[in-house]
Write a structure and sequence with these properties.
about 130 residues; mainly alpha; rod-shaped
Length: about 130
Amino acid sequence: MAGKNGPDGTGETGRGKQHEADIRDDDLERRRRDLEASLATRRPDRLEGKDDAKAGSVAGYGQALKLSSEFIAGVVVGAGVGWIIDRLAGTSPWGLIVFLLLGFGAGVLNVMRSAGLMAEFGQDGKPRDPKE
């Protein structure tokens, strides 16, 4: 039977012939510091501290409120127009159903435009930068 190191070395796993003693803690610490420095230079606009986290969450709540109101307004206006058309034309559920679906689509479109994921009408198909 083959031992730990099989007949053609197939039983070997890990780093091969390099031993654990070759890896030094100071080398790992140096590499970690180099990585931190590299990351810090790539993200200079990020602020440290709890104030930044608070400001980000407040801005996030504002953005969420804006996007949700855009969506709800589209659905409500679509349902309202459909209900009015049903009352005037006598097409009982169909106007409400059609315009509710159109309002849903308009709400989704408004949310995508507000979030900057879609180009505004008449801007040559270029979406605006969401960071603006």
